[in-house]
Design brief:
This protein is of the alpha+beta class. It folds into 8 domains: 109 residues, Ubiquitin-like (UB roll); 78 residues, Ubiquitin-like (UB roll), CATH 3.10.20.310; 82 residues, membrane protein fhac (Ubiquitin-like (UB roll)); 73 residues, membrane protein fhac (Ubiquitin-like (UB roll), Roll); 84 residues, Ubiquitin-like (UB roll) (Roll), CATH 3.10.20; 76 residues, Ubiquitin-like (UB roll), CATH 3.10.20.310; 65 residues, Roll (Ubiquitin-like (UB roll)), CATH 3.10.20.310; 399 residues, Beta Barrel (Porin), CATH 2.40.160.50. It is built from 19 helices and 43 strands. The strands form 10 sheets. The protein has a 16-stranded antiparallel sheet, with no helix packed on it. A 4-stranded mixed sheet has the order 1-3-4-2, with helices on one face. Strands 8, 9, 12 and 13 form a 4-stranded mixed sheet that branches. The longest helix has 17 residues. The chain is globular, with a radius of gyration of 40 Å. The relative contact order is 0.05.
C-alpha cells in the first residue's frame, strides 16, 4: 500500500511553500521521508488527478496545467502549474499530493472552488427611501465577482447604515446564502424589514447663527408649519434641510456661510432623530458694479460666486471674464472689467467690479477670404461671430468668440487634410468711416492638402483585414488627418472588443511617403487572447417562462465573447417591459480562462399597474339635446372626465399584457379590454393586439354615436422612423339621441354592421413627439369595408396627413400640417344615395382644437337644410345640425416662438379647410353662396399660449373665424318641429315654425393638453 506524501502547495507563493512541504514530509521520519521526497524529484509522472473535478473548460484546464504525464517531476514545474491554475480565478485553494506509483509518481491536485456572485435579491418590506436600487448598490455584491463570506457581513452593515441615514433605525436585515455548484455561483437573499421611520426633533445648533431657532427650523423644513409636527426623517430631507439653511443665508447675501452636519443622533427611547448643526454665517457679500449699472439678475447669472457659494480669487477672475463676454455680446467689444475686494466692515464684505464699456459697436459685416476648399456657408456654420440681423441687433462678437472661431475653422481644415492651415480673424473698427461699425475679416491660409498614400495593417491575424478596411476613415487617396486616425483606432479596437478580444491594443502612427504631401498610415495591433462564451446562465425568473428569455439570447456557447452583444441582449430584455432589473456580467472577469460564463440576473417587475386620471375640457361642445334645437353650432361647456387604466403585465409568464381602460365624461363614455402580444412569432418590432371596445360619444350635436367593436391589429416597425399597422375590425355602429326628425326614419336608426380591413403607415422623423421643433410626421391610412368581410355597407376610406417643422432661427419654429381624406361608397343599398349610404358614425367630422379651429368641436361640413322629403312621413324643416361628410381637407400653419422665459411659448396660427359632402364638392372658394352651401374653404387666424409640462404643453387658443358659415336653424324643440308643415299656409303655422338665420361664432376658444399637431 502506498502512502501519500502531501506537498500542500497553496497560493499565493507556491515556490516557497514547496520547500516547507518537503520539510513537513520529512518531519518525524527525517531520513526516510527526505529520501522519499528526493526519490520523487525527477521521477516520471504516471498520473494526474483532481479532487474534486475542476469546473474549468477542458481547453482552459489543458492550458493552465503545465505538468503532464510522462514528464519528470520538478518542484518548479509544480509551482508553475499552481500559479497558472490560480491565475484562472477558478480556485480559492490548491493542494498537491504525491504518491509513489511503480517506478514513477502519481499527483493529485486537491482544489477548493472559488465561488462567484450569481445574484442578489431583496425580499420583505422596504419603505422607500431607500429604494430597492439604492439598497442593491450598497450591498457592493457585483454580479460575477468573486465571493467571500465576509462580503455578506459587509453588505448587511452597509444596508443597515443606509437605513439609519433614512431614519429607519429599527430596520433588520437577515442574509441567506445559497451555493449552486453549477458555474460555482452563490445567490444571496436579504430578508429586509424596514420598520417604522423615526421623526426629527429639535436640532442641536452651535455657532453664532444670527437667526432665531424658529427661522432656522423654517429653513430646514424638518417641522411642518402651523401644526408644528416633526416630519419623518430621510437622508434627502436631512441634506435638504442643511441646503435650505444655506439658501436662507445666501438670500441674505451671506455667500460664504457654512452649515455642517457633524452628527445625527438617535434616541432609542423616544425614537427620535436629533441633527447637530454647526453654523458660521460669515459676512454679507455685497457685489456692486461701478461706472455701469448692472442688474442683480445679470450679476447672479454671470458671477460664479453665486453658484459655488464661495468667494476666492479663481471665481472672481472667472466672473471678470464672464462679464467681459456678456458686454461684448451686447456690442461693447472694447469693454474692460476689473475687480477689488474690500475687507469686511460692519459685517459686510464688498466686491466691486469696475466696468469700462467703451463705445458700443455693431458688426455690420463678416467677410471670409482665402477659402477655396469649403464654401462660405460651411464655414459660417462653425462660427459664433455673426453680423447684425433681425434677431441680433448688434451682431455677435467677443474675444472669446474670436478664439473659438479660429480654433473651430482651423480644426475643420486640419480634419480634412490641411495640416498647415492658419486662420486669422481681424477686426476693422469704424468700418468705412462710420463710427461704431465693425467689420470682421476672416483670413484663411489653407496650405497644401495632405492625402493618404497607403494604409498598412500590422498584426491582424485572427480577424481578416477585409473586415476592418471597410470601416476605416483613412482611405487611400482621401484627405489625411490625425482626427481620422484617432477615429480609426477607436473603430478597430471597438470591433475587436465586440469580437472577443478584451485586451487588444493598437498603436496608430504615420510617416511621410515618397510622394509630396502624402502620408503612409500604419496601424500596429496586438490582438491578445481571444475569449469565448462558455455558457449563458440566467437566474431570477419566477413567473416568466424561460423560453421567453432564451428567445432574446443571441450569444451561444462557443461564440466569441462580445460585450456589445451582451449589452444588446440586456436592452432587448428591458424592452420586453416586464422586468424591473436586468443585470448582466461576465463571471470571473479577472481570470485568465478564455471560456467564460455570461450571467443574466433578472428581477421581475410588478405585474399589476393601475392609473386613475382626472381631467377636463373647456370648449363649445356639440352635446345633443332633446329640449332645444336653438344651438346647432354647439354651446360653451365644461366637461370633467375620469379615466382608469388597469394592466396585467407578463400574463401567463409569456410577456403579454392584458389591459382594461375606461373613460367617463359628460360627452364620452368608453371602455376597452385589450390583449397585447409583443414580438409576435419572435420578430423584433412586430406586435399583435386584440381589442374589445365600447364607445358612446356625444360630441356631435346631431346624434350620439355608439360603437361596439372587436378588432385585431398587427404592428411592424420597419425602421426607426417607419411603422406599419395592419388590422381588421368588426363593429356595430348605431345612433341615439337623434335630434333631426328626418333621421327618425328606421333606416337611419337601425344599427349597421361594419367589417373593415385597414392598413396604415406612420413615418415619424420629429425630434420630439410631444413638442417637435424640426422633422416631419406622415401618416397614410386606408380601409376597405365590403360584404366579403361581413359588412352591411361597402366603402373605401383614405386619410393622408403630412406635418413638417422648421427652425427659422434658434427658437422660432414654423410648423404646418395638411390633412386630406375621402370616403368612396360602392354597392349602395337600394333607397339610399351615395352620401346617405355611409352611416353617420363612419362619416368625417371635423373642427375643434386638433383639426380646424374655425369651428367648435365636430361642427365643420354639411348641415341639415330641411330639403329631404320622406314619402309617407313627416317633412323636416331646416335645423342646421351637422351631418358629416365624405371628404375633408385641412391645412394648419403655426409660428411658434418663446413668449415668457423657457416654459411659456406663444403661437400665431392660420387654419383653413372644411368637411365636404363628396370628393367632387371640394372647393377652395372663400365665400358661401347661400345658406345651403357648406362646400367652401373656411379660414381662421388666432393666437395661442403653450405652457411646457413633463407630459406635454398645456395650450389655450383663441381663434377668429374669418368666413364662418351661416345656415337656417330652428329655435324650438324637436316636438315642435314635427308640428310644422312647410307646404301649408304660413299664416296657419304656429309662430315657432318660423326658421331663423344662424351662424357659427366668429370667435372660438380652446383649452387642452398637447400641441395641435
Amino acid at each position: 500500500m502506498h502512502r501519500w506524501c502531501p506537498l500542500n502547495l497553496r497560493g499565493p507563493q507556491p515556490r516557497i511553500l514547496i520547500i516547507i512541504a518537503a520539510a513537513i514530509c520529512g518531519g518525524g521520519h527525517a531520513g526516510a521521508q527526505t529520501t522519499s521526497i528526493a526519490r520523487f524529484e525527477g521521477k516520471q509522472i504516471e498520473s494526474i488527478e483532481y479532487s474534486p473535478a475542476p469546473l474549468l473548460d477542458p481547453a482552459d484546464l489543458a492550458k493552465a496545467q503545465t505538468v503532464h504525464t510522462g514528464s519528470a517531476l520538478r518542484g518548479t514545474d509544480i509551482a508553475a502549474a499552481i500559479d497558472s491554475l490560480f491565475a484562472t480565478g477558478r480556485f480559492a485553494d490548491i493542494a498537491v499530493e504525491a504518491d509513489a506509483r511503480g517506478a514513477g509518481v502519481a499527483l493529485r491536485f486537491v482544489v477548493k472552488p472559488q465561488h462567484f456572485v450569481g445574484g442578489v435579491r431583496l425580499e420583505g418590506k422596504i419603505s422607500s427611501p431607500p429604494g430597492r436600487g439604492e439598497l442593491h448598490s450598497f450591498t457592493q455584491l457585483n454580479l460575477g465577482a468573486p465571493f467571500e463570506d465576509a462580503d455578506v457581513s459587509t453588505a448587511v452593515s452597509s444596508m443597515t447604515h443606509l437605513f439609519e441615514t433614512n431614519g429607519l433605525y429599527r430596520a433588520s436585515v437577515q442574509p441567506n446564502v445559497e451555493q449552486v455548484p453549477d458555474a460555482q455561483q452563490v445567490f444571496i437573499t436579504f430578508h429586509v424589514n424596514a420598520g417604522k421611520r423615526s421623526r426629527y426633533e429639535h436640532p442641536e445648533i452651535e455657532g453664532e447663527t444670527l437667526l432665531s431657532d424658529a427661522a432656522i427650523l423654517r429653513a430646514t423644513g424638518w417641522r411642518i408649519p402651523i401644526i408644528h409636527r416633526w416630519r419623518l426623517a430621510t437622508n434627502a430631507r436631512t441634506r435638504g434641510g442643511v441646503q435650505g439653511l444655506l439658501k436662507k443665508y445666501q438670500s441674505q447675501d451671506r455667500l460664504t456661510a457654512q452649515v455642517d452636519l457633524p452628527q445625527v443622533e438617535y434616541d432609542a427611547e423616544t425614537k427620535r432623530v436629533r441633527p447637530h448643526l454647526t453654523v458660521n454665517p460669515g459676512p454679507k457679500v455685497k457685489v456692486q458694479a461701478q461706472e455701469v449699472k448692472v442688474s442683480k439678475r445679470v450679476l447672479k447669472r454671470y458671477l460664479p460666486i453665486y453658484q459655488d457659494r464661495s468667494v476666492n480669487p479663481e471665481l472672481l477672475i472667472e466672473g471678470k471674464r464672464n462679464l467681459e463676454d456678456y458686454f461684448q455680446s451686447q456690442g461693447y467689444y472694447n469693454v474692460e472689467v476689473d475687480f477689488r475686494v474690500e475687507p469686511p466692515v460692519n459685517d459686510v464684505e464688498t466686491i466691486s467690479y469696475a466696468i469700462s464699456r467703451g463705445e458700443r459697436k455693431k458688426v455690420v459685416r463678416v467677410q471670409i477670404t482665402g477659402n477655396k476648399y469649403f464654401d462660405e456657408e460651411t464655414i459660417r456654420e462653425r462660427m459664433f461671430i455673426a453680423p447684425a440681423a433681425f434677431n441680433l441687433r448688434h451682431g455677435r462678437f467677443s474675444e472669446a468668440f474670436r478664439r473659438k472661431d479660429e480654433a473651430n475653422i482651423t480644426e475643420l481644415y486640419k480634419s480634412n487634410g490641411f495640416r498647415d492651415a492658419k486662420v486669422t480673424i481681424g477686426v476693422d473698427e469704424d468700418y468705412k468711416g462710420k463710427i461704431g461699425s465693425v467689420a470682421v475679416n476672416v483670413t484663411i491660409e489653407e496650405g497644401p492638402q495632405w492625402l493618404v498614400n497607403q494604409v498598412t495593417l500590422v498584426g491582424f491575424a485572427q480577424i481578416k483585414p477585409e473586415e476592418i478596411t471597410g470601416r476605416l476613415a483613412s482611405i487611400e487617396g482621401q484627405p489625411f488627418s490625425e482626427v481620422n486616425m484617432a477615429s480609426d483606432r477607436s473603430t478597430i479596437l471597438t470591433y475587436y472588443f465586440s469580437q472577443g478580444f478584451p485586451s487588444a491594443t493598437m498603436i496608430a502612427r504615420w510617416e511621410p511617403s515618397n510622394v509630396k504631401n502624402r502620408a503612409n498610415v500604419i496601424y500596429e495591433l496586438k490582438e491578445g487572447e481571444r475569449q469565448y462564451v462558455r455558457d449563458v446562465k440566467i437566474s431570477g425568473l419566477r413567473i416568466t417562462r424561460p423560453a421567453l428569455v432564451l428567445e432574446q439570447m443571441t450569444l451561444k456557447a462557443g461564440d466569441p465573447l462580445s460585450p456589445v452583444e451582451q449589452t444588446n441582449i440586456q436592452k432587448r430584455l428591458y424592452d420586453l417591459g416586464i422586468f424591473a432589473r436586468v443585470e448582466t456580467a461576465i463571471e470571473n472577469p479577472a481570470g485568465t480562462e478564455a471560456h467564460k460564463y455570461v450571467l443574466y440576473n433578472i428581477e421581475e417587475g410588478d405585474r399589476y399597474r393601475v392609473n386613475v386620471g382626472l381631467g377636463a375640457q373647456v370648449a363649445r361642445f356639440g352635446t345633443p339635446s332633446n329640449s332645444s334645437l336653438s344651438s346647432p353650432g354647439g354651446t360653451t361647456g365644461f366637461s370633467p372626465e375620469i379615466s382608469l387604466d388597469a394592466s396585467r403585465y407578463n400574463f401567463l409568464g409569456r410577456g403579454h399584457t392584458v389591459s382594461l381602460r375606461a373613460l367617463y365624461s359628460s360627452i364620452e363614455k368608453r371602455g376597452s379590454i385589450s390583449y397585447l402580444q409583443p414580438r409576435f412569432r419572435n420578430v423584433e418590432g412586430r406586435n399583435i393586439s386584440y381589442t374589445l371596445l365600447y364607445d358612446n360619444t356625444l360630441d356631435v350635436r346631431t346624434f350620439a354615436s355608439r360603437r361596439e367593436e372587436a378588432s385585431v391589429q398587427l404592428s411592424q416597425t420597419f425602421s426607426k422612423s417607419l411603422t406599419g399597422l395592419f388590422g381588421f375590425a368588426y363593429r356595430r355602429v348605431s345612433v341615439s339621441s337623434v335630434i333631426i326628425p328626418v333621421l327618425l326614419v328606421p333606416q337611419f336608426l337601425q344599427p349597421v354592421r361594419i367589417g373593415i380591413l385597414t392598413a396604415s403607415l406612420v413615418q415619424d422623423r420629429r425630434d420630439n413627439r410631444t413638442n417637435p421643433t424640426r422633422g416631419m410626421y406622415n401618416t397614410f391610412d386606408i380601409g376597405l369595408a365590403d360584404r366579403w368581410f361581413g359588412s352591411q355597407r361597402s366603402f373605401g376610406r383614405l386619410l393622408l396627413r403630412n406635418s413638417t417643422y422648421y427652425k427659422i432661427t434658434g427658437k422660432l419654429i414654423l410648423a404646418r400640417q395638411t390633412e386630406f381624406g375621402i370616403i368612396a361608397p360602392f354597392s349602395i343599398p337600394k333607397g339610399f344615395t351615395s352620401a346617405e349610404s355611409i352611416p353617420l358614425p363612419e362619416r368625417f367630422f371635423g373642427g375643434g382644437a386638433d383639426s380646424l379651429r374655425a369651428f367648435p368641436y365636430n361642427q365643420a361640413g354639411p348641415r341639415d337644410t330641411g330639403a329631404a322629403l320622406v314619402p309617407g312621413g313627416p317633412v323636416s324643416k331646416a335645423t342646421g345640425f351637422p351631418l358629416g361628410g365624405n371628404a375633408l381637407l385641412f391645412n394648419n400653419v403655426e409660428l411658434r416662438f418663446p413668449l415668457v422665459g423657457e416654459n411659456i411659448q406663444g403661437v400665431f396660427f392660420h387654419d383653413m379647410g372644411n368637411v365636404y359632402s363628396t370628393i367632387r364638392s371640394v372647393s377652395f372658394r372663400v365665400r358661401q353662396r347661400d345658406l345651403q352651401d357648406f362646400n367652401y374653404m373656411v379660414h381662421a387666424v388666432g393666437f395661442g399660449i403653450r405652457y411646457r409640462t413633463p407630459v406635454g404643453p398645456i395650450r389655450a387658443d383663441l381663434a377668429y373665424s374669418i368666413n364662418p358659415p351661416a345656415y337656417n336653424g330652428f329655435s324650438g324643440t324637436p316636438t315642435q318641429l314635427l308640428q310644422c308643415n312647410p307646404n301649408a299656409n304660413p299664416a296657419t303655422q304656429p309662430s315657432f315654425c318660423q326658421s331663423t338665420r344662424q351662424q357659427i361664432n366668429h370667435f372660438q376658444f380652446f383649452f387642452s393638453i398637447g400641441q395641435t399637431f
